[in-house]
Amino acid sequence: HQVLRIRTKNEEEVRQLQLLESLEHLELDFWINPSAHALPVDVRIPAASVQSVKAFLESQGIDYSILIEDLQDVLDKEKQDMAESAQRQRSSSFDFGAYHTLDDINEELDHLASEYSFVEKIQIGESYEKRPLYVLKFSTGGSKRPAIWLDAGIHSREWVTQASALWIANKIASDYGTDASVTSLLDKMDLFLLPVANPDGFVYTHTSNRMWRKTRSKIAGSVCVGVDPNRNWDAGFGVSPLLAPPGPGASSRPCSDSYHGPSANSEVEVKSVVDFIKNHGNFKAFLTLHSYSQLLMYPYGYKCTRPDDYAELESLGRAAASSIRSLYGTTFQVGTICNTIYQASGGSIDWSYDNGIKYSFALELRDTGRYGFLLPAAQIVPTAKETWLGLKRIIEHVRDKTA
Amino acid sequence: SPAMELPPSHFPAARAAAVAVGYLRYLRGGPGRGLELRELRRARRQDIDDVGHKYYLELELEDVLDKDRRVSCTAEVLYHLGSTSCAPEVQVTVQGELRSTEEADQEFYNRIRSLEKELVAENIPDSHGNVPPELEPLHLLAWVASGYVIWQNSTENTKFHLAQVKHVKQVKRNDEDLQFDYVLLLHEMVSQEVLPWQVTVLWHPQHGARVSQ
């Protein structure tokens, strides 16, 4: 359908248009009716009638111009615009400054994936209780570009981490194309974000026990449930420190909150990530979020010796901590896991580092114990913002070092 | 042997600092005063033959209800050799004055005494970190109680924090004290366990807090 704008010069031409209006078989739809000759007349003409109406106008010497070449196109675009706007409405209705249920989080992941063409939601596996493990893939093209891994919520009670991951996902997506650093990053590398690495535990913290840390897997021969997923990786698995201090490293008791599990990768939540990263084969950084204590750590945890890349990782860690501090003055301590907190085996960044992913960092976010796991929701966005500055510093370094 | 310098940012020093803070909360805390560690400035450790390990600490604290004021203190924490059943010995010296809580204490005391029904509350803070303002004094009194528990139960290899007040119940008494029976959740960072502790606190504006496990 076309829409024509007709400019009549005198009363006679107006009368001609009124005659045209009366011809019902043409199915003309006058948006502005012919009345006074000083006013333009807009009319929608069905495709079948376009040629004959134009011929008539030309034969009468009546001036016209094409207002809308193809109405369907316009309608289609408008529909799309409205849909996008509705999505933006839903997006601006997701409160990043509040704690959400798993269902709400998954809905927001869907929304981000639909709003941004370079964001895709993929499933890398299933939890013990068969919940999907959803990862957001940020990719502007290429094929298996060098990639960054970022996960949160492996310990389910650390609620500020899942919440921060959502904010960060939205930040990265909306910054592409406007922020020079994020744009150059995604033009060169991919980023994979797993916001809820332990969905069974997370649901359990909502329904039953806010302080639950582990997975929810059944353990043969025990009444106790769950394995500490950050003692379950294949890195010095099950090792207890030979020297007295401090702590068990990882516990062999099923009822313990740091139970390492019957064997490395026994937890499907861990195995799914391991398989995904190994199959991909081109990850350059492995970053994981925990809370609380305000620490920025690199390997090793399972042994108290320095990694080969100690100097670079320490320096990068300090730079990242400095970036974090620049926003609100929040101080993060930097060091190896073993020196900073304690010897602990089977941790994820030890595994990733020993598997060739040099830039492996674990962050413990706010606070230092005043609220601990129960960080007030008002601190989510400030925490996410400062954390993102630290991660960004690390990621920029990785980007610049990656061919 | 001489005392050796420890990095204050690392956990061995932080564990001793947590004990000192717990002890100080027990001694000087109340429904109107909660002391929080802002920074561990310096830490040294001395191994004393046949006695144990002694930590010398310089701490900067803040009163959460008087945030602009810095409170400096020094502390000594002695962990006795080979003992897990004996509480560490702690000495703390606070430099300067803490803000007076006389008025707030009296107000709290009067409010609770005038309640018809015994006060009961749970999950402080709640799952989202909220503490209703009228429960804040009970929250801070829980810091006093947990401070005592943390001091009494810490070893060189543990680091306790109060994770949550699971439950608190007032018990009316014939004498002048207020009594609160708490169930506290303590988070121990080395084992990562979150454990419930039952604690009873007696409190009076002039007599301070007495805690029993």
TrEMBL record, chain A:
One of its GO terms (biological process) is proteolysis. One of its GO terms (molecular function) is zinc ion binding. Residues 98-398 form the Peptidase M14 domain. The gene is Cpa2. This is CBPA2 Carboxypeptidase. Its cofactor is Zn(2+). InterPro entries: CARBOXYPEPT_ZN_1 (IPR057246), CARBOXYPEPT_ZN_2 (IPR057247), CPA_M14_CPD (IPR034248), M14A-like_propep (IPR036990), M14A_act_pep (IPR003146), Peptidase_M14 (IPR000834). It is found in: Secreted.
UniProtKB/TrEMBL annotation, chain B:
InterPro entries: CYSTATIN_LXN (IPR049897), Cystatin_sf (IPR046350), Latexin (IPR009684). It comes from the Eukaryota. GO terms for molecular function: metalloendopeptidase inhibitor activity. The keyword Repeat applies. It holds the Pfam family LXN. Gene3D superfamilies: 3.10.450.10. Keywords: Protease inhibitor, Repeat. GO terms for cellular component: extracellular space. Residues 2-103, 120-213 form the Cystatin LXN-type domain. Belongs to the protease inhibitor I47 (latexin) family. This is LXN protein. The gene is Lxn.
